[in-house]
Amino acid sequence: MDIKIDSDNAFDQLAIRFSLYHLMIMTPKHDSRYGIGAKGLLGEGYKGHSFWDTELFILPFFTYTFPEIAKSLLEYRYNTIKGARKKALDNGYKGAMYPWESAWTDDGEVTPVWGAADIITGKATKIWSGFIEQHITSDIAFAVWQYYMVTKDEDFMEQCGYEILLDTGIFWGSRLEWNEKQQLYHINNVVGPDEYKEHVNNDAFTNYMAKWCMENAIHYYSLLKEKESSVFNKLNKKLNLDEEIPELKKKFNKVYLPIPNEQSVIPQDDTYLQKKEIDLSSYKNQSHVGSIFKDYSLSQVNEIQVSKQASVVMLMYLLEHKFDDTVKKANYNYYEPKTLHDSSLSLSTHAVLASDLGNQKLAYHLFEKASKIDLGPDMNTSNHVIHAASHGGVRMIDGTLRINPKLPDNINSITYPLIWASNKLKVQVDKNTINITNFGDKPISLQVYNQEYSIENKIKINY
After folding, report:
1. Cβ contacts of residue 416 below 8 Å, gap of 6+?
2. Neighbours of 119 (CB within 10 A)
3. How far apart are CA 158 and CA 117, in angstroms?
4. Cα 358 from Cα 284, distance rounded (Å)
5. Is pLDDT at 289 greater than 80 in this prediction?
6. Three-state SS for 28?
7. Is 195 a catalytic site residue?
8. Distance CA 370, CA 460 (A)
9. pLDDT tens-digit series, residues 384-431
């Protein structure tokens, strides 16, 4: 699993090793009845509950290096599907609606209802995420699909994965709300990844990922019905697929997706772009997260163009094949100045997109900033224990292995391992070349800057 960085700054290698260490010690490898606590192993932050942190930020590390551990973490989500179905039913929906915070497999939703006092009213603030932050259902489905694309683990899919993909798609079909004026289905009253915006309609991340879930459910319904009759028959009996999936198909093309405006910016939700703008420079340069709440209440922040963390940018990280470079750049340039990175999840996402867009200086700055949350000179940043999800992160694009290296000026080379479809790979990247060794017994196909390659043993690619 070792990642070696030849950098002008020795701190970079230390930061990577620190992350690898915590990823390994905080993950329950021994029992699929347990998830990863959002604050790791070292303390009681978030009461040890599991969030979307695991699936989108931590799981890829294990999927690419220790797939058997990734499988166990996904089996945990399968073991909690009973609680997800109960949450859907309790809210008047079908399918599996995953809890925002999960603990023991039988618990269901365990998000606290009340939080800290409002700076204006002095009353406890209601925590809405357990009620309306619903994108976690899509996040879990994405992690299942990503694991399948990387590992080709058909046994897991037959035992657990297909059921999750189908039932999450069924949930979103039941969650849609018909808008008579637009003749489209909307998703109203949610919290997206940007938790500084509550009770919004048509959050871009939520809508795009929900439609992606529906698309996957339709795809695997057709695939299983055609090729795997025994698996299909079992799931059809359990989930009533022959009735539910045709209903999804009817709704699919009428799901509303926020589209780029004249400036190529995708509205984060129905009202974000109409909210007032303020000078955020002091909060962008803050020494402690959440400093904006010394001046504003959450309800006031809700009316300002400011984001807690990556939201539209996160969407373009996961479903980047759906957006062209013009749209990616316009949205990054619009939302990054408005994003305070008050969640440790945010910096790594923005670092990756900055690199994609050719801004290696900013990418490295964000990487360094993320590394110093728990390992920097300000020890108070870890008062509530480590920021576990900021220690993960590898990418797979739409089922294809792809490596597009762009090293910052002060990093000379990176060497890292990958497992793709049970084949162990060693990847060495420097300023001009990629050397890949395949230790497996099957050829591997991949893309490097839109060029297709096949690797049987070793390959050297100039870029």
Report:
1. 2, 3, 4, 426, 427
2. 14
3. 47
4. 22
5. yes
6. coil
7. yes
8. 32
9. 545 444 444 456 677 789 888 888 899 999 999 999 999 999 999 999
Q: What is 202-214 written as a DSSP string? A: S-HHHHHHHHHHH
Domains by residue range for the chain, with CATH: 28-399 (1.50.10.10), 415-462 (no CATH)
Query: What is the rounded average pLDDT of the residues 190-204?
Result: 97
344-347: long-range contacts at Cβ-Cβ below 8 A with a sequence spacing of 24 or more?
344/370, 344/373, 344/387, 344/389, 344/390, 345/53, 345/57, 345/309, 345/310, 345/389, 345/390, 346/308, 346/309, 346/310, 347/373, 347/390
Q: pTM of this prediction?
A: 0.93
pLDDT on residue 378: 65
Q: Tell me, rounded to whole angstroms, the distance of Cα 399 from its chain centroid.
A: 16
The pLDDT of 95-103, averaged and rounded, is 95
Is residue 40 left, alpha or beta, with left meaning phi > 0 and alpha meaning psi from -120 to 50?
A: left
**For the ranges 15-29, 110-124, 257-271, 441-455, the one whose mean pLDDT is highest:** 257-271
Contact (CB, 8 A) for 119 and 294:
yes
Q: Compute the distance between CA of residue 423 and CA of residue 443 in angstroms, rounded to an integer.
A: 9
* Catalytic option among 195, 198, 336, 368: 195
**pLDDT at position 392, please?**
41
**String of DSSP letters for 369-413:** HHHHHHHSS-GGGGTT---GGGG-----BTTB-B------TTEEE
Residue type present at position 389: A
Pairing of strands 114-117, 4-7: unpaired
